[in-house]
Amino acid sequence: MTATLFFVQALNGLQFGLILFLIAAGLTLVFGVMDFINLAHGVQYMVGAYLVAAFSAWTGSFGWALLLALPSALAFGLLLEVLVFRHLYDRDHLDQVLATFGVILFLNQGVRFVWGAAPLSVPVPELLSGSVEIANGLLYPVYRLAIIAAGLVVAALLYVLVNHTRVGMLVRAGASNAAMVSALGVNIQRLFMVVFGFGAMLAGFAGAMVAPILSVEPGMGDNILILAFVVIVIGGIGSIRGAFLAALLIGLVDTVGRSFAPNLLRLVLDPAAASQTGRAIAPMLIYIFMAAILFFRPSGLFPVKR
Amino acid sequence: MTEIAETQSAPATSFTTRFEIVPLVLFAAFAAAPLLATFSGAEGYVLSLLTRVMIFGIAAMALDLILGYGALVSFGHAAFLGLGAYTVGILASHGFEDALVQIPVALLASAVFALFTGAISLRTKGVYFIMITLAFGQMLYFLATSLAAYGGDDGMTLASRSLVAGTDWLENDFTFYWLCLVCLVGAYALSRSIVASRFGRVLRGTRENSVRMEAIGFQPFRFQLAAYVISGMMAGLAGCLLANQAEFVSPAFMTWQRSGELIFMVVLGGLGSLHGAIIGAAAFLLLEEFLPEILHASSFFLGEETRAHLAENWKMVFGPLLILIVLFVRGGIMGLLRRPHHG
């Protein structure tokens, strides 16, 4: 029983980790290439979820909604870049934190203004509804497996894009030394826009994918943003590989920790105290984990060489 | 972190008598406010609003001590507010209702938490520091939400304000107001003397160039850690007062958005002037309080329904306002006060 439960929790952790990776990938690239802290990355995830909710209500099909939501999320990201973020690249981190905080306030209220404060729900697409038996007697929702598959595919595509294409090369070069890339005749402003738009689209994609299993509500991006920050800090800012590993680690530690911390503590404490302490410690686990990693590796697991 | 230092428009050494006036006027205004409040007809409302302003003024000033003078962008300072508030709440629920017990315990708890998190955070630099302090803040936030015995997500209501040596003086709003003012002035005087001391100069030197400070024989880490602990304790004190003001304690006191608001207060007022942080806190809270009404009043040419809608969604104006302030008002309110003088 415990082994199967562990297996299910590990799958949940993997799924959560992959969603985190989709968000963290954009965040770490934007930070690595542009030295820009974007707190508003979480609201781009929220906007992705809202777009898919709106489009799926309009078209009645999740597939079409996703197809429409991705370019819209991209366009929205580019719009924000032109309107706000572009003016902040040469500011210090403090100004960036504050201005993007302003964007969060605006957009959290903005979606409430447009769609109301009540959570929206998006139906799970017909094709991916239901469960499959993955071991004897163990059912797992197909849609969650689809998220895992989509996350892995995007991660693979991202790997090829960053490591084996010309744009990817420029992005990696930009992460090491943006000024030098610019001096070599690359239009760095355009590179910034591409990276930014792409990051926004990835976050939007993550939001769109989780829309059917979570409630779509204002502020849904705020907490996941913090987790994405934890991921990129552990992974080493600017490193896609670091973000991938750290996202999976965080996903697993968080999900598995929440269900097993009380059980583990039962070995040393009486059941009531164990479940109480376990519930208190579980949500703190990833932060303790992060503090421990940074204590030994202050620049994360895979620091980008500058 | 040197970028932050560069945005500093005037070093604290160029203090002229002109700017000594600002804190005096500020504290005089706070001292005179209760008198005016009695005439305003909405005494309770005015007093409680101004008490909140002073409490957040203390917290923002605590942050300014490390942000303005040490260029340490702590994005988790609301955790100390929460720590102070929860100390009051938890002790009160176990029968320790006296502020003379609660405040020392809260200060100790804040100091220990600051020492522990600071020792880890200060090993890192720049953006890593921002995010680690953020993560520690979140850690405490989630701890608070999981404390089922103390209200969990919903928080808990205090039975009454803290006692002082067994008497219930603080139940009187005026007495509580004066206590907050005393704390504010005390914290200001303490911060001012810290900034002016050798310790403060080393801290500022570290802000400008920590490599050079090391070269002349200082260990920046120790000074930064000490400043971080002092700042955390001051914010913890503000938390004790906040719990008493609201007579309520909840995890909402230490969300990361609250930490962001504290940073905004400091920047709005002007980095590195201490009283600027108090002015920033006042401006922020008053704006938050009155923006819905300002919007409603200033949109008189629109239909009543649209006006109500606009007032309800005031955050859609507040957010862009914040962005515009960051982009165009450099040096904050103190910077604006300073500009005509320096030309």
Characterise this structure.
- The complex is a heterodimer of chains A (306) and B (343).
- Chain A is globular and about 65 Å long.
- With 306 residues, chain A is mostly helical.
- Chain A has one domain: ABC transporter involved in vitamin B12 uptake, BtuC (Orthogonal Bundle).
- In chain A, helix 5 (142-164) crosses helix 6.
- In chain A, a hairpin with a 2-residue loop joins strand 1 and strand 2 (138-141).
- Helix content of chain A is 74%, strand content 3%.
- Chain A has a two-stranded antiparallel ribbon.
- The longest helix of chain A is centred in the first third of the chain and has 33 residues, at 2-34.
- The N and C termini of chain A lie far apart (49 Å).
- Chain B contains 15 helices and two strands.
- The longest helix of chain B is centred in the first third of the chain and has 28 residues, at 43-70.
- Chain B has a two-stranded antiparallel sheet.
- Chain B has one domain (2-342): Orthogonal Bundle (ABC transporter involved in vitamin B12 uptake, BtuC), CATH 1.10.3470.
- Chain B has 343 residues and is mainly α.
- The model of chain B is unreliable at 1-17 (pLDDT under 50).
- Chain B is globular and about 65 Å long.
- The interface between A and B is large, with 48 and 47 residues.
Structural class by SSE content of chain A: mainly alpha
Identify the strand order in the major beta sheet of chain B: 1-2
Task: Work out the radius of gyration of chain B.
Answer: 20 Å
User: Widest sheet of chain A: strand order?
Assistant: 1-2
Taken in chain order, the helices and strands of chain A follow as HHHHEEHHHHHHH
Rounded radius of gyration of chain A (Å):
20 Å
CATH class of chain B: Mainly Alpha
Question: What is the CATH topology assignment of chain A?
Answer: ABC transporter involved in vitamin B12 uptake, BtuC
**Strand coverage percent of chain A:** under 5%
Tally of discrete structural domains of chain A: 1
> What shape does the CA trace of chain B take?
globular
Largest interface: A-B, 48 and 47 residues
Mean pLDDT of chain B: 86
